[in-house]
Amino acid sequence: RGPPPRDYLEGLNGEQRRAVETTDGPVLVLAGAGTGKTRVLTTRIAHILSLGLAWPSQILAVTFTNKAAREMKERIGILVGEAVEGMPWLGTFHSIGVKILRRHAELAGLRSDFTILDTDDQIRLIKQVIQAEGLDDKRWPARTFAHMIDGWKNKGYGPKDIPEGDARAFANGRGRELFSAYQDRLKTLNACDFGDLLCHPIRILRDNPDVLADYHSRFRYILVDEYQDTNTAQYMWLRLLAQRPRSKTPSSVASGDTFSHHGEKEGRLPSPLVGEGGSPRSGETGEGYSSGFEEAPFPGDLPSPAEGRARDDAPDDFSSAPAERSRASGDSASENKINICCVGDDDQSIYGWRGAEVDNILRFEKDFPGSTVIRLERNYRSTEHILGAASHLIAHNEGRLGKTLFTELSDPDHDKVQVHAAWDSEEEARAVGEEIEQAQRRGHNLNDMAILVRASFQMREFEDRFVTLGLNYRVIGGPRFYERMEIRDAMAYFRVVAQPADDLAFERIVNTPKRGLGDASVRMVHDYARARGIPMLEAAGEIVQTEEMKPKPRAALRELVDSFKRWRDLLEKTPHSELAEVILEESGYTAMWQNDRSAEAPGRLENLKELIRSMEEFESLRSFLEHVSLVMDAEQNADLDAVSIMTLHAAKGLEFETVFLPGWEEGLFPHQRSLDEGGRSGLEEERRLAYVGLTRAKRHCHLWFVSNRRIHGLWQSTIPSRFLDELPAAHVDVAEAPTNYGGFGGYGASRFDKAEAFSANRSTPGWQRAQQNRTEATSRNWGSRSGVAVERIGYGETDSGFGAGRKSVK
Ligand code: ATP
Ligand code: MG
Q: GO molecular function: any one (predicted)?
């Protein structure tokens, strides 16, 4: 029985199909890279839609990036053979969080037009808070505190919830107080930071049973990609949405007593579910906290009495399920069930440093009793060499579930994974560029190639090189267009127009371009605003009515205040991109760059033009501003055939025909910071990152290491990454050694002088010594490796003197 097979199911293997067709009850797909997890999710949505089990608006689907969300939407459209009308709840945790928060902003003490601060603004604000408390912000840097706040918010903590130890760790025990002051400031500014996009919704859902019940009746299906990288706050958020209350009265979910989190070492529940000191905050209902989900049946089995009511007063896009759904499901139990499906790979958990908890995936079965766990073993992405190399590498990690992976992409003609050496990063970039041009000449698209770096500073060299070569490239998730100074200035003007309470934006441009408003004047406005608890723009409007400020700055300030008033009036009447142009003209901002004689000025003016052009694509100024605050990936010229450059972290879930992985050197990859801070688990996370990198490649995979690298401005001789040692000889080739110049990769004459230096260092006692040093350094630095199977891949014999013996190079 069951539905007739549909086109979209064809081509799936048995287990994939089971993951798609098990629409009833919780499902976990736990499988290695390239096994089709994301494809299963996409197909599952198509399946749900085409069986009529739910409307698009009843499906909550979480992806890791905005880009992935867009791609998923497109793919679903293709699968169901028609444009999918609005999947309003398909997006990242943040984009869905902002949506929930806009709908219920008042429940978090905000107005629905709140601003989302980016990191820069956040730091500025924190600095102000630190200074306002009379603390020295040099001794207690805002960045450090911002980092702490992010950490707390990743755990779902508000100021009251942070553990005593944490609270003591900053500013002589004033951490809690500062955190609290920061949250107050955010509220006054009608703003929130990224962490709030999760934390506010959690509190809203937890504290407002009717709101929670509305979402429970709204979302029939919840799907989550990259589940291994959810943090505690995201996990709590999901649990709230995916778990129906056990009790029949909706109020039983007040204070979230049915929702607990695991794994807190202190044995206390993390906030926002608990109060200070580890004891649960007493909930309105007085229900016990001890009832974690372990003992509870899957709450979805219980009918939700709130459902009918919620539907009656359903707001905007909410619609009841298609009639076919009831026919298809029949029994009432499945009708009330919220069916969650998470897919992930514990070996690809690479955001531990940002608070991700791989445990979330490991305990899915406990959290959702009665769940179906599906493992996929066939990798459809990579050749046997790439998969072999990656599997062998990741096997060096201890804390893993372990998986079998196989591929049928096996052919004697397949390239092995290539390991290359270069003298320094410039040469590395040059060689990679050469390789790319050759591939291009053989007919490969640039779109099919990617360079994945461990640290973003590595990008510059490639960007420089590609600009020289005239090779198109795009930086994904990197230094973004919107982060450029002129763009940020322009945006600040727009933000104040859209949201006059946005003090941070106001401060940024109050004297940009210079209009004679010095620090003293700005401080006056600032203090006036603080004293009265009003926005700075409003304060400025009042100050200019008085004699307080000297005539000159007063006149300048009055003009600015008047201008904002005028622009705000225009907001209703003028298309926003036209208004933007007017603002930049009238404020003198455009003129400032026109009069600037520096080399960058023309480029900046072009960027401003591009900014205005890009605004046309948005309905309103607000949606544009929201877009900018949410954009994580810079997709410049999406239509252009271009090589992608990104960090390994940004490469998650993606795949490319050819992948270049530069910088496989100790200290860079594995990264020293991870080793220093994370010890063994830090190293394991680095290794997972290497696994992610290798498994992005479909056909060709090139690894690079250099002998000398400049890190933070200092030249250092380097040691090849231990990860190179961990690759299996059977699947790896070491690129030709530089024994004959012409043969050394054939990268062209310009390399000769360097290759010479390179080789001089090689065949001699110097080289022998370098090897010796390397071995010593190895046992010295990697003492902890004893017991780890080390398989040498032979580059020691053939290759260049890694430079390990050289103290300084340039
Ligand atoms: P990652 O862990 O890297 O996110 P994944 O498990 O999500 O990988 P997908 O990206 O869904 O894997 O799939 C990898 C590749 O294999 C894609 O190109 C996908 O189209 C292809 N693929 C998946 N399943 C099949 C199948 N049954 N037949 C043919 N190709 C498939
Ligand atoms: Mg995937």
A: ATP binding
Residue 405 to residue 779: CA distance in whole angstroms: 32
Whether the CB of 35 sits within 6 Å of ligand 1: yes
Q: 106-111: long-range contacts (C-beta < 8 A, 24 or more apart)? A: 107/204, 107/207, 107/208, 107/211, 108/192, 108/196, 108/200, 108/203, 108/204, 109/187, 110/187, 110/190, 110/191, 110/192, 110/200, 111/190
Which residues form the catalytic set? 37-38, 225-226, 348, 696
Taking CA 229 as the corner, what is the angle to CA 227 and CA 233, rounded to the nearest 5 degrees? Answer: 90
Question: Alpha-carbon distance 386 to 222, whole Å?
Answer: 33
Q: Of 138, 206, 142, 205, whose CA–CA distance to 179 is shortest?
A: 142
Atom of ligand 1 nearest to the CA of 13: 27
Tell the residue nearest (CA) to atom 27 of ligand 1: 12
Cβ of 495 less than 6 Å from ligand 1 = no
Residue 37: CB within 6 Å of ligand 1?
yes
Q: Stretch 468-484: mean pLDDT, rounded?
A: 72
Q: In 3D, which of 697, 709, 705, 700 has the Cα closest to residue 664?
A: 705
User: Which residue, 662, 621, 590, 614, is CA-closest to 480?
Assistant: 614
Which ligand has the nearest atom to the CA of 35?
1
Q: What is the CA radius of gyration of the chain?
A: 29
Distance from C-alpha of 297 to C-alpha of 456, rounded to nearest angstrom: 46
CA distances 229 to 352, 360, 692, 740, 779, Å, are: 7, 8, 13, 47, 33
Q: Give me the phi and psi of 370, to 5 degrees please.
A: 80, 15
Cβ neighbours around 589 below 10 Å, total: 20
Of all protein residues, the one whose alpha carbon is nearest to atom 9 of ligand 1 is: 36
- Contact, 430 vs 751, CB < 8 A? yes
Identify the CA nearest to 339 among candidates 40, 713, 60. 60
- How remote is the CA of residue 37 from the centroid of ligand 1, in Å? 6
Question: For residue 327, how many other CB atoms are within 10 A of its CB?
Answer: 10
Q: How far is the CA of 33 from the centre of ligand 2 (A)?
A: 7
User: Best mutation site among 45, 76, 380, 692 for ligand 1, i.e. most ligand atoms within 8 A of its Cβ?
Assistant: 380
**pLDDT-based confidence at residue 252 (cuts at 50, 70, 90):** very low
Residue 516 zone, left/alpha/beta (φ > 0; ψ -120 to 50; rest) = left
Give per-residue pLDDT as tens, 158-214.
999 998 888 888 888 889 999 999 999 999 999 999 999 999 999 999 999 999 999
Residues whose CB is less than 8 angstroms from the CB of residue 78 and which lie 6 or more positions away in sequence, other chains included: none
> Tens digit of pLDDT for each residue in 295-354?
222 222 222 222 222 222 233 333 333 433 333 333 344 445 789 999 999 999 998 877
How long is the chain?
810
Centre of ligand 2 to C-alpha 495, Å, is 36
Closest CA to 615 of 600, 599, 626: 626
Domains and CATH numbers, the chain: 7-98+208-374 (3.40.50.300), 115-189 (1.10.10.160), 384-478+640-738 (3.40.50.300), 481-630 (1.10.486.10)
Assign residue 794 a region (left: φ > 0; alpha: ψ between -120 and 50; beta: otherwise): left
